[in-house]
Amino acid sequence: MIFGGFPYIKISGLSGDIVRDAENILLGNGRPKTYAHVHDVAEMNVRIGRMYGLDENKCRIAGYLHDVSAVIKPADMLKYAKENSMPLCEAEERYPFLLHQRMSRIAAAEYFMISDEEILSPIEHHTTLKENASAYDMALFIADKLAWDQEGVPPFYDEVEKALGGSLEKAALVYMKYMEDNGKILWPHDNWKRAMEWLKGIIVR
Ligand SMILES: [Fe+2]
Ligand SMILES: [Fe+2]
User: Is residue 54 classed as helix, strand or coil in its secondary structure?
Assistant: First the structure.
């Protein structure tokens, strides 16, 4: 069990209510800002999901669980990944917090007993996206950026929101281009690079 492997993580029993259980684990481990963020992302993901005919409940659950691994220290994420022979790209080796998307997926599956790929895959790729992303993958990726975990309104908000009126693909690519054009990428993740190439290939201007 993923959380059980880290003695500093306090886990209480599950109620079966995913929203309450996500709240319990984040607040119980001193992450109130992460909880506020996942709440906002869940609402944003439901809104985007409604625009594109997605299942609201799946969007809500993915939003609440996407950053649940924030209770694990990044150095421990790297250790866990190596001990479990998870293949790593250079970005993850250099910046282990990038592993939190994969760790959150494992937590969602093992701790919260989620088996639905339309919930697990978006969680696993919410930071980097991936090639051939589904509508659920793109919706959470965009929701996480529009309801970001920093102060104020994101500088790319209006541009991405406008693109969202066109398609999920356009909104995702507008955000990715903003990040690259403004030197915001620490180190390009393999999934990010492939996702961008894929989006550029399918979006005809
Ligand atoms: Fe995240
Ligand atoms: Fe997030």
Answer: coil
